[in-house]
């Protein structure tokens, strides 16, 4: 509700994939065999859970239809990895664009403050994960995810260049 997202299967999937993405980024620091094993298990569990949710919650009893949706979801997962990786490398504007396309479904009516909070939350999560030892990542990676609402005060603070631009425009930051 804080982000204005509808409570749909797609929202659940993309919020979950956002968490998975951050963990996968940290797993890349492990040796290749360990990283591949952990990532495969993480992704497999997600897709098993997604299929169960389709059947139990959304009453999709046709295995063929579920498999079609799961294939689409896998394509989204792969695209999301590329888009978020590009954003992590190229900067917050590119990352925000990727989050807007994936999590917010490229809607025109989103709250940009919420979008900025997600980007700040992602950066904070990556920082916290980077501070864990490899052993801690394996045992408690999910524990580092702070409440997204904690990022709103962060995105509400104008940066020095923004303060200058506001002052030049005769606007007082509130």
TrEMBL record:
InterPro entries for this protein: Ubiq_cyt_c_chap, Ubiqinol_cyt_c_chaperone_CPB3
Domain of life of the source: Eukaryota
Segments forming domain Ubiquinol-cytochrome c chaperone: 2-137
BP term (GO), one: mitochondrial respiratory chain complex III assembly
Pfam family name, one: Ubiq_cyt_C_chap
GO cellular component: mitochondrion
Family (UniProt): Belongs to the CBP3 family.
PANTHER family: UBIQUINOL-CYTOCHROME C REDUCTASE COMPLEX ASSEMBLY FACTOR 1 FAMILY MEMBER, UBIQUINOL-CYTOCHROME-C REDUCTASE COMPLEX ASSEMBLY FACTOR 1
Protein's recorded name: Ubiquinol-cytochrome C chaperone-domain-containing protein
